[in-house]
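task queued by scheduler; priority normal; single chain, no ligands, no partner chains; default sampling; output format set to structure tokens
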Amino acid sequence: MENSYISRTSGIKAKDKIGYAMGDLASCLVFGLTQSVLNKYYTDVLELSVLSVMVMTIIARIWDAINDPLWGRIIDGARVRPDGRYRHWLKVFAVPVAVSAVLMFVKIPGLSGNGYLAYAYVTYILFGMLYTCINIPYGSMAQVITSDDKERSSLSVFRSIGSTFGAMPAMVLASLCYVTLADGTKRMDDRRVLIGVCAIAVLSVIAYLLSYAWSRERVVSQPAPRQKGQTMQVVRTLLKSRPFMAVSLASMLFLAAQMFGQGYNSYLFHHYFNAPGLTMLPTVFQYLPVAVIMFFATRLGNKFGRREVCSYGVLLAAVFYLVLFVLALFGFTNVWLYLLACLMSGIGTAFIFLLVWVLATDAIDYNKVTYGLNDEATSYAFYSFMRKLGQTVATILINVPLLRIGYSGSELKTEGLSAAALKTMYNFSVMIPAVLFLLVFIILRFVYPLSKARVAQLQVEKEKMMESQSGQ
């Protein structure tokens, strides 16, 4: 295998890994704002109703169902440029994505409630479109940086490390964007938010350009033929691919659980724990185990199987949230106990957090070998859309409890939440992650078919196919 096709299109260095990580760091810098800050900004600063925020998110996803596959087909059919088939787009869209992120947090003086809602629609959907334009080619880069299975696993780990650091500034902003009013209550301040968002946007541009500069495409790939009906044919193939659909659903639900926690904690720590300054700690505690597990996640995944370590890890996370729910039934809740459970659940979710991207590339490899599907960007566009659905699920799950308790940002200026409402808020905060993580476990363990043995067999089949296609 020394002169095999895979060996000739692999051999990544530390610079490649860091460069690839910088791409997701950049994406998560701006995307993290929608996770940690945007929902509360809409309800508390723009004073949009909880229901209108939910509807807006659903409409945006309906548009994404058209936009994402369309952009994937454009990328698949675009000519290969001197600076690469995919990395080229990082420098093209770095600034537009950053600007669109800032626009979501600009509060225009004098607008009415409907005016703010219309502005939110335009800027939120614009951000989603531009984010798609850069995220689909970035995600597809893993297929052309290396063709080696173990090296792709390493890229997945580094990508997740990049996303960890990328999400942190938004979490810090979510904790520090409050001002204390004359009556002692705390409110989110739009000026602090905007200043923080501008700084984060600049950092994202720098990170995207570093990813462009430090990445290298080793696998030569040609544009996919543009044929009438080709997009729907590819989508139909993806829908019948059990590995691809399973990992897409698992990733969607896992992202929904992550985003639910990051968005809902802004309300939970502000009102239930009365500690808005600690809002970022649950996510920080969940990410802390990643700093340790990242050093051996790839080795454990290779030894025991990526599907296996990811599924049982996420089951562990579900158990800890269930424990919190049971304790709450007996009236035992505490901010530090909640944070301890976040830390312990983070140990379990660290594996899927670090390895989810290689699970997706394994499924895309399966589609290549089984169905001859070489449309990487379209495949990733579909996968990216499923993850965006996770964002929508999270938004719904954040706002349904708020609707249940009659939450209104304008009314909270003069009234607090009742004890019953606070209890309901807490119960949702622990039960929703528990249910989502249990669903992810079931999908990965019993539906996703690419076990350790099957992935090894897939690597052999892929080598034969690629040698044949290269004419060796």
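post-processing summary
- Strands lie at 178-180, 186-188.
- The domain at 5-219+230-470 is CATH 1.20.1250.20 (Growth Hormone; Chain: A;).
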